Amino acid sequence: MATAVHKTLIKLSVGAVVMFAFAMFAMPPLYTMFCEVTGIGINTGEPYVATEAGIDESRTVRVQFVTTNNAEMPWQFAPSIHEVRVHPGEPTPVTFWAHNTTDNDMVGQAIPNVAPFNAAQYFHKTECFCFNNQPLAAGEKADLPLVFIVDPDLPPAVKTITLSYTMFDITDRQSGGPVAATTN
Amino acid sequence: MAHGPAKGIGRWLFTTNHKDIGTMYLWFSFSMFFLGGFFAMVIRAELFAPGMQLVDPNFFNQMTTMHGLVMVFGAIMPAFVGLANWMIPLQIGAPDMALPRMNNLSFWILPCAFIVLASTLFMEGGAPNFGWTFYAPLSTTYAPASVNYFIFALHIMGASSIMGSINIIATILNMRAPGMTLMKMPMFAWTWLITAFLLVAVMPVLAGAVTMILMDINFGTSFFDAAGGGDPVLFQHVFWFFGHPEVYIIILPAFGVISAIIPTFSRKPLFGYSSMVYATAAIAFLSFIVWAHHMFTVGMPIAGELYFMYATMLIAVPTGVKVFNWVTTMFRGSISLETPMLFAIAFVILFTIGGFTGVMLALAPADIQYHDTYFVVAHFHYVMVAGAVFSGTGAVYYWLPKWCGRMYNEALGKVQFWLAFIGFNIAFFPQHFLGLAGMPRRYADYSLQFADWNMVSSVGAFMYGAAQVLLLYNVLSTVIAGKKVTEPKTWEGAEGLEWTVPTPAPYHTFTTPPEVK
Asked: Is residue A87 part of a domain?
């Protein structure tokens, strides 16, 4: 009986270690994969090549702009205009502006997110400051350009799209290039 | 042949006896129940009236966090491990637990974990204040310095829990008396077998979650930090992948206790034994695939919301099977209402209420309204307190004569039951109204329109607290000076091997295995 007990003990201990490893090393990559497959918070960080889809004049979509600074990012960062009304298919330029208020040269990286998430795959950026990082010298101000197109295939239920940018301080990470794309 | 227990403190420090260890687990759990209860009293005293009364908001948050942690990990879980230690060897005809030395270790590291956790209250910056669910970034970027002690305590507690579960599985699978097939085991042993598998599967996931938190805070990783490419929502997924099975870990042994008490006092065998076993297994399986119903508001795809909603509602089916089986067991039974039976019947009624509000919360569109309100608080206290704690209290009254050979005071037991039952409902039923009216949980203050029901709720909570003092008195007076009982069968309708050994249960039982026909 003692050997049977020890077999049970060993099997269950191995099971517990496997579950720990699963939580630590399998769940984070699985989660990232799941988000990519399902399109949650699709990373709209890739440039889009415009197609000749035509402009759908019959529809107007409100596009709102929101900016946030990640914790401890001291820059001033805001959209020049908070809301535009566009027709699907129409390339629209807007600008954001950023001001490095500190006495140090810094590098920022803006990460976009689109809400509602079922609009994310229909919101295209042909030109965006977020494709690269944004180095600003001490006290420097800059206009940050964005050109976007709302896809004419946007589900009819979506009347308003909110594009939000979070500005991260990546000065310390500059040797390693831009921050890894987030899933959300 | 049997030698008695050792003398002095050494008996308790070095014991490998399942009854001694069970007793220590139960007393430890009882003391944690009073500690967590004290925190609850601070919470309800602060919420007695709107405005800031007694404590500052940060301390209030520490109280809600510590109340949850101490009650879940310190009171309820060890209580059922204690019952398992005492009763499972007696119920399956084993002389002791399969791994008695590990049993000693798994108990004794538990007080260490809770001393570490409780000591955070006296540290600079205070105890953990981020809620028992310790969502990142509240528990990482914004956590008090004591978070590292919290993580350490949770690691020790998890190790204790995993060792305890392995022991229970090894005992049940290897040490049953000849003839005691799995499908002849009492339901309590069955529910614990399934619970122990759940624990071995998910306690390591909790350990993983706290380890990732630890690394994010101290070693520069970014599992849950968006600035480094991580995602705080991932934390919620990992946590609830542990957390949802955890709530069944708490309730399944309670089901086992109720399945023992109701047949005894109905003087009928348990109705639908095998369906009870399959329902327990089904609940355990479903618990792994429904976790995101705790997170309907994080922004999931509609398909995800629908899946988690339907899968969650499916749990009502095996749970319903259990409730109907208990009711059918009582149907046309020769029922007598001793204190354990009162607690069992109250369990069935109140747990069913908690189950119904659970189905309401499973509805994704409704949950978006109820999320993080007092409706949720009311729901989980109906299943945790009226579920697990009532069942545990019933179990203490039911088996106390077998443990110590003395009968508790029945009149006092009934008074205690009614005080607890009425107090509990006055405390928690109004919280449904508060939640539906929009009062958010985890705040030290509230708007004036919530004042009346909060005052009622606080009065009920104090009543419920008083009932526990009465329970302590009743247990102590029984152990010290209760009327001596000697018949092996304390209750005339009781069945099972634990009622074949003398009363009080001798230090060593079933040294020769019983024959089970």
From this structure: yes
Instruction: Determine the Cα–Cα distance for residues B154 and B157; give it in Å rounded to an integer.
Output: 5
Q: Give tens-digit pLDDT for B330-378.
A: 999 999 999 999 999 999 999 999 999 999 999 999 999 999 999 999 9
Confidence of residue A38 (pLDDT cuts 50, 70, 90): low
Secondary structure of B147-177 as H, E, C letters: HHHHHHHHHHHHHHHHHHHHHHHHHHHHCCC
Q: Tell me, what CATH number does A72's domain have? A: 2.60.370.10
Put simply, the answer to whether B227 touches A168 (Cβ < 8 Å) is yes
- With an 8 Å Cβ cutoff, the interface of chain A facing chain B consists of 1, 4-5, 8-9, 12-13, 15-24, 27-28, 31-32, 35, 38-41, 70-71, 111, 115, 117-118, 166, 168-169, 179-184
Q: Which chain A residue is nearest to residue B241, measuring alpha carbons?
A: A23
From the list B204, B229, B300, the residue facing A182 with the nearest CB is: B229
Residue A54 located in a structural domain: no
Q: Are residues A31 and A70 in the same domain?
A: no
Residue B294 is a catalytic residue: yes
Nearest CB among A24, A39, A180 relative to B229 is that of A180
Give A19→chain B minimum CA distance, Å: 6
**Same domain? A24 vs A97:** no
- Chain B residues lying within 8 Å of A19, measured CB to CB: 200-202, 204-205, 208
- This complex has an ipTM of 0.91
- Locate tokens 């009543």: which residue? B463
Helices (H), strands (E): how many in chain B? 17, 2
Residues A112 and A163 in one domain: yes
The owner of tokens 């990082």 is A133
| Beta-strand relationship, A61-69 and A160-169 | parallel
Q: Is the dihedral of CA B332, B333, B334, B339 positive or negative?
A: negative
Residue A46 lies inside a defined structural domain of this protein:
no
Residue type, B333: G
**Residue of A8, A166, A182 lying closest to B231 (CB–CB):** A182
Per-residue pLDDT reduced to its tens digit, B166-208: 999 999 999 999 999 999 999 999 999 999 999 999 999 999 9
If you write DSSP's letter for every residue of B81-104 in order, what string do you get?
HHHHHHHHHHHHT-SS-SSHHHHH
Say yes or no: A20 and A106 in one domain. no
Per-domain boundaries in chain B: 9-499
How high is the mean pLDDT of chain A? Answer: 83
B259 labelled catalytic: yes
Q: Domain of A24?
A: 1-38
| Same domain, residue pair A66 and A108 | yes
Determine whether the interchain pair A27/B173 forms a contact, defined as Cβ–Cβ distance below 8 Å: no
Question: Does residue A97 share a domain with residue A7?
Answer: no
Candidates A5, A20, A169; nearest CB to B98: A5
Among all residues of chain A, which has the CA nearest to that of B196?
A12
Query: How many distinct structural domains can be found in chain A?
Result: 2
- Average of per-residue pLDDT across A15-23: 96
Residue B516's CB: how many other CB atoms inside 10 A? 15
pLDDT in tens, B402-440: 999 999 999 999 999 999 999 999 999 999 999 999 999
Residues A31 and A110 in one domain: no
* Co-location of A100 and A133 in the same domain: yes
- CATH architecture, range B9-499: Up-down Bundle (1.20)
- pLDDT (average), residues B292-318: 93
Structure tokens, A167: 């500005």
Work out the average pLDDT over B80-88.
97
- Domain for residue A51, yes or no? no
Q: Do B59 and B126 contact (CB within 8 A), yes or no?
A: yes
